[in-house]
Every structure is written in structure tokens, then in C-alpha cells.
């Protein structure tokens, strides 16, 4: 009050004549106890039953205006003098409450050991996405208490804890579990420090509904870190996509999502001016060019360019080819029916397992079913020879025809006839070729690799002209299989011709020509057109940094680098200086042979920063541009993976879970490698200090 505060001068007093300073050893000042000063000897040993006892110097004094007078008065009291004498005897002889001190230390050691085991059990259950408490009606103690009781058989500390009488303090309640989950989930503070220390970062956000129909916003950040040893020498380069938790989505409109994203970055202390990319799916509220979330964020930070999730774009392109070409759609319907035929019967699935080899057991027909919306399954399945798998299933169907009932007999017979057709085998070869380019969900995939689809377009255009070659390869496979070796001829559909119709469309009566025009060419044309159209905006972003492609870096003419100041330095003028083109030319000249050996931008960056760390200061602008390039997002796969954890953590049996607990468990599960490296002693200290506890821990 009155702008007065405690001063260090109160710790000493001086004589009137000589001016010699004498310390006041009895005085203590505590910032935690409401910033007050008190007398330690009186606090410990004052006679509280005395008639003239005053508790002011025991509870603490904050009257700084009259403190000097109160100090002089307190020093002259008998209670203070007696307490100081006992205090000095206690310090010299340690005869007062020595046994009590020992008991307190032993109790603190015991409870710290208990909390260490509770932390380890909590971290294990959270990392494995397991429930902590019992489910209603199960009649057991739940995973947490069951593990504690199991460990008590082998650990004397837990055995003593479990054997304590009912009603005793044990720190095993669900409230204590929530406190530990919250404390351990604060590992995102270390992640946030890494994000702020990184030169750039990008935002990857996506939303979904949990089992309670509550919208959940997944927060993922992408940034690049340089790994260094004890000598501060770079030894590696790491692209990070880290998860900072779930937040309850307040709405789905662009303005609401924008406010929530900005509030999240501000709450976490992340500087928006260092954001250089935004990764969202193709929903209109996220990707809208004028009022979408990406447009609103770009208004706040113009360098935060938006990248439409590349796998989503590819999936849309492939889905268009499936939906708009009836022959391809029937192909995947057949694959789905094949899975349903075996998957819905225990006996049939067991029969399938008997016929399969050890190698093919790792791939199931479910992969093909999932590819109806996820193309990766068929590609993974093709690695284990799809033709062999279908041949094996054909033998099973033939075996089933001899033993099945009438309905099952008809179903098996229909499937056998379909997968034995020449067109089905042809489509397997064709779809396998299309899927060779669709693996872009790895964290270390750079945007240049994701956008380099011109090669895929050229390959597919060449493949479109190779119908006869594909047909010959299919005939060879069909011959080994003993299946049809030519396209099945079907009756041409006749349409009634009206008297006023001058002409009619030409119908292809030849089965091979009909398949080539309406299935083969139609499917490839849609895929090629979609690849050319959907990635136009992505290519505009990549063209700014395309000079770093190692495949073309050394082949570029020197004159082409004159455009870099206007394209790259001007666009990222806040990050890259005009000296960048000169450094880039010097870098290319000095390391021409090594650059030619690199396969990607990541390898090129490692070559410069890790393998030739001595010259990074010479090519500082090149290093900055390379790190910026690798920071740009490619996909929202990390957010999609967090939704898989969400479904595991908050399922229909745990649908009442709170938001804070859900976010904490998700962080511990997804960032479990970081969680395992946490200092358990610091976690126990944080638990002891967050509020007053009934048991000692220090």
C-alpha cells in the first residue's frame, strides 16, 4: 500500500554511536505467504498460551509504514527473547523433534515413490489408449487400479499403499488421475518452444465429430529442426508435424474457425508472423478464395500460403474416374462383394486363410474394400501380387461351389464368373499402373515431390497409347490363370429411332473397341484432366521454389537465375535478402557434383547444413530458403491420424469424457515418444506445488 514495500535494510540494525550494522537473524520475508515478513523463532517456539502473546509476527505483517516501530517493539518482548533462546539451542543441539523430522523425511520419500509409480502407470495407459476406470456394469476395478494392485504383489511400496485401511489417503482417485494427465500433457510447452525457436512453421488444422457429437478441432504444426550434438555441430535434420491437442469447435463457419485458430496461436504464445503455410482439406469453409479460413488468415499474414491437401486432391481425382466410368465402378463393386462374401462368414474366411501363403496373409481383401474411398489399399495389395491372390480366391470359389447351399452357390458362381472375365484382369493391370504415384502422406514428403505430377501425367498419356501392349500382358496372365483370353461380346443395345431423327450415334459393336473407348480411354482421360486441373494453384506456389529441384538444379542455364530476385526474394522479402541469387549461383558452382547426386530437397538440405556445416554461414540465404521450402505443408494426414486416436480414446464406452482430459490423453498418446522422456521427479514436484496436499513430498 502507498507504494511501500519490504526492503533489505530491515534485515540489519545499526548502533547509534558507532554505526555498526547488526543482522536480524530472526526476521524472514516470504513472497508466497502474501508477501509478508514474520519472526521465525516465534513462528516455531513462541509460547502461544502466554497472556501477552501477539500472533502478528507469527501470521505475518504487511504494514510497511509502521514496520520499523513494530520491529523495535517486538525485539524487546519477553516472548521473542525466549523463543530466540530455544531456537538457538535447537540449532546447536538438534535435540528438539529430531525423530519427527526423520519421520517427515521418510514419509516424503515414501509418497514420492508412490507418485512415481502412479505417473508411470498413468503414462502407460495413456500411451496405449486404454481406459482408466471401470465401465458400468463390468464389476471390476478398472485398468488403473487393477495394474496398481498387480504391481503391489511385487513392489513393497505399493503393497504398503494398497493395504492401508479404507478411507486413508492413497492418491488413487480419478481426480488425481486427471491432475497427472493435465501435468504430463504440458509437454506441449516444450513443443511450443521448439516452434518458436524454428525460423518458420505452418498450420495444419482439421475438424471432426466425436462420439458425443461434439466438434473437435485438431491442432497440428509443421516445422523443421536442426539436430545438434554437444559441440553445437549439426548432425541431422528433422521435419516435425506435432500435435498440440483437441479443442471443442465452437462452429463451422469461416469466421468462427478463424477466430478459434487465432485464439489458439495467441494462447500458446506462437507468433503468427512466422507462419508460412496453411494446410486444410478442400471444404468450402476452409479453402474459399474470398471468405474461407485460408483467405482470412492470409489477410493477417500474407506469406501464409494455402496448400490444398494433396492426397485429398488425388483421392477426388480417382473417385471421379470411378464414379463417371461405369466399367470401373463395377470393378470396385466386384472387389467389395468379394470381400463381403468371405468377410461375413467365419467358415469362408478360415478357408481363405488355409489357401493363402505366409506372404499374402499380411494383405486382406479389406484393403481393396477400403480403397473404394482410399486408394492406398489397392496399391499396397498389388505389392503382394494381386493376380496371385485373385487366382487363389477363384480356386476357393470353385471349392465352395461343390459344398454350398443354393443361395451361397449362386453368389459364389456369380463372383467366379465376374473375376474370371478378361476385362476384370485387364482392369487390375490398369488400376495398378494408375496407383503407382499415389503415396504422399509421409511427414518428410516435401511439396515439390507432391506437386511433381507432370511426370505422372506424361506417363499416363503414354500409357493411354499402349492399349495393345497392356492387352498382350493381360493375355499372358489369363493364359497362366486359365481364364478368358478376349473381351466378352455383349449384345448391342438397340434404341428406337423416331421418324424426325436425322441421324444416330455410332454404336461400337466390337467388344474390344467398346472397352477401349468407354472404359480404358475414358478412365485415363478423367484422371489426366483432373490432375491437370486440380493442382493448378499448387503449381503456382511451387513455381516460386522450383529452382531447388536437384534433378534440374545443375541443368539450369545461368541466365535463368536472373529471375530469382523478382520471384523468390521479392515474394519472401521479409525472410530472404537480395543476396540470395548470388549465393545460389555460388552454391551451385561449388557443389555441382554433390548436388547432382541428391534425390530430393530434403537430401539437398542435409548435404548443405549437415555434411558441409562449415559453409552454412557463407550460404545462409540458401539455407533459409531450403528450410522454408520444407516447412510448407503437403497433406493433413497428421490431423487425420489424430482423429483415429480420438475414436480410440473417446469411444461409446467413454462418451462422457471431459474436454481437458480428452486433449491430455490425446497428447500423451500421439506424442508418446516425448512423454516417455519427461522427468518424473519434476512431475511429482509440479503435483506437490499446484495446491496444498495432505501428505508431505519434500
UniProtKB/TrEMBL annotation:
Name of this chain's protein: TTF-type domain-containing protein
Domain HAT C-terminal dimerisation: 616-672
A Pfam family this chain is assigned to: Dimer_Tnp_hAT
InterPro entries registered for this protein in UniProt: DUF4371, HATC_C_dom, RNaseH-like_sf
A molecular function (GO) term: protein dimerization activity
UniProt organism field: Poecilia formosa (Amazon molly)
Ranges where the DUF4371 domain occurs: 115-292
Amino acid at each position: 500500500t502507498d507504494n511501500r514495500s519490504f526492503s533489505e535494510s530491515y534485515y540489519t540494525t545499526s548502533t547509534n554511536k558507532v554505526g555498526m550494522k547488526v543482522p536480524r537473524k530472526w526476521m524472514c520475508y516470504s513472497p508466497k505467504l502474501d508477501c509478508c515478513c514474520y519472526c521465525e523463532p516465534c513462528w516455531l517456539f513462541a509460547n502461544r498460551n502466554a497472556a501477552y502473546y501477539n500472533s502478528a509476527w507469527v501470521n505475518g505483517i504487511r504494514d510497511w509504514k509502521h514496520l520499523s516501530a513494530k520491529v523495535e517493539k517486538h525485539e524487546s518482548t519477553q516472548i521473542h527473547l525466549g523463543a530466540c533462546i530455544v531456537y538457538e539451542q535447537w540449532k546447536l543441539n538438534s535435540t528438539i523433534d529430531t525423530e519427527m523430522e526423520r519421520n517427515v523425511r521418510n514419509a516424503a520419500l515414501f509418497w514420492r515413490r508412490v507418485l512415481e509409480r502412479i505417473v508411470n502407470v498413468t503414462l502407460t495407459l495413456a500411451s496405449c489408449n486404454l481406459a482408466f476406470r471401470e465401465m458400468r456394469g463390468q464389476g471390476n476395478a478398472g485398468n488403473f487400479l487393477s495394474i496398481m494392485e498387480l504391481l503391489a504383489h511385487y513392489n513393497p511400496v505399493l503393497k504398503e499403499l494398497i493395504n492401508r485401511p479404507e478411507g486413508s489417503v492413497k492418491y488413487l482417485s480419478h481426480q488425481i488421475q486427471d491432475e497427472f494427465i493435465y501435468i504430463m500433457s504440458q509437454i506441449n510447452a516444450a513443443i511450443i518452444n521448439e516452434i518458436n525457436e524454428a525460423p518458420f512453421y505452418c498450420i495444419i488444422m482439421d475438424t471432426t465429430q466425436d462420439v458425443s457429437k461434439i466438434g473437435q478441432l485438431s491442432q497440428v504444426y509443421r516445422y523443421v529442426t536442426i539436430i545438434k550434438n554437444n559441440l553445437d555441430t549439426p548432425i541431422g535434420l528433422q521435419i516435425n508435424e506435432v500435435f498440440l491437442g483437441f479443442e471443442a469447435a465452437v462452429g463451422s463457419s469461416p469466421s468462427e474457425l478463424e477466430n478459434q485458430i487465432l485464439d489458439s496461436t495467441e494462447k500458446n504464445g506462437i507468433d503468427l508472423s512466422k507462419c508460412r503455410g496453411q494446410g486444410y482439406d478442400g471444404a468450402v469453409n476452409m479453402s474459399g478464395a474470398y471468405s474461407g479460413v485460408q483467405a482470412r488468415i492470409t489477410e493477417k499474414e500474407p506469406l501464409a500460403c494455402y496448400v490444398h491437401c494433396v492426397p485429398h486432391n488425388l483421392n477426388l481425382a480417382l473417385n471421379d474416374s470411378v464414379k463417371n466410368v461405369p466399367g470401373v465402378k463395377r470393378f470396385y463393386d466386384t472387389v467389395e462383394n468379394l470381400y463381403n462374401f468371405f468377410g461375413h462368414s467365419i467358415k469362408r474366411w478360415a478357408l481363405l486363410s488355409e489357401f493363402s501363403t505366409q506372404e499374402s496373409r499380411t494383405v486382406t481383401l479389406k484393403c481393396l474394400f477400403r480403397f473404394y474411398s482410399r486408394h492406398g489399399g489397392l496399391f499396397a495389395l498389388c505389392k503382394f501380387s494381386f493376380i496371385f491372390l485373385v487366382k487363389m480366391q477363384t480356386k476357393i470359389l470353385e471349392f465352395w461351389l461343390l459344398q454350398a447351399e443354393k443361395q451361397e452357390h449362386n453368389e459364389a458362381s456369380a463372383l467366379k464368373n465376374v473375376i474370371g472375365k478378361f476385362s476384370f484382369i485387364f482392369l487390375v493391370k490398369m488400376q495398378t499402373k494408375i496407383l503407382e504415384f499415389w503415396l504422399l502422406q509421409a511427414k518428410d514428403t516435401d511439396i515439390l515431390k507432391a506437386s511433381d505430377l507432370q511426370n505422372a501425367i506424361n506417363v499416363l498419356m503414354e500409357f493411354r497409347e499402349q492399349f495393345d501392349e497392356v492387352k498382350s500382358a493381360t493375355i499372358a496372365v489369363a493364359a497362366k490363370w486359365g481364364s478368358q483370353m478376349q473381351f466378352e461380346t455383349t449384345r448391342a443395345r438397340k434404341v428406337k429411332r423416331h421418324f424426325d431423327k436425322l441421324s444416330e450415334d455410332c454404336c461400337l459393336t466390337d467388344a474390344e473397341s467398346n472397352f477401349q473407348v468407354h472404359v480404358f480411354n475414358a478412365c485415363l482421360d478423367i484422371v489426366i484432366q483432373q490432375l491437370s486441373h486440380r493442382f493448378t494453384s499448387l503449381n503456382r506456389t511451387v513455381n516460386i521454389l522450383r529452382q531447388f529441384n536437384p534433378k534440374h538444379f545443375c541443368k539450369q542455364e545461368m541466365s535463368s537465375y536472373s529471375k530469382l530476385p523478382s520471384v523468390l526474394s521479392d515474394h519472401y522479402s521479409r525472410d530472404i535478402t537480395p543476396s540470395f541469387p548470388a549465393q545460389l549461383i555460388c552454391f551451385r558452382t561449388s557443389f555441382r557434383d554433390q548436388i547432382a547426386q541428391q534425390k530430393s530437397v530434403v537430401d539437398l538440405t542435409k548435404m548443405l547444413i549437415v555434411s558441409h556445416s562449415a559453409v552454412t554461414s557463407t550460404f545462409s540465404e540458401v539455407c533459409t530458403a531450403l528450410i522454408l521450402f520444407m516447412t510448407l505443408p503437403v497433406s493433413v494426414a497428421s490431423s487425420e491420424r489424430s482423429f483415429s486416436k480420438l475414436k480410440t480414446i473417446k469411444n461409446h464406452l467413454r462418451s462422457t469424457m471431459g474436454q481437458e482430459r480428452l486433449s491430455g490423453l490425446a497428447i500423451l498418446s500421439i506424442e508418446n515418444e516425448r512423454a516417455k522422456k519427461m522427468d518424473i521427479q519434476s512431475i511429482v514436484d509440479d503435483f506437490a506445488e499446484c495446491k496444498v496436499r495432505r501428505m508431505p513430498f519434500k
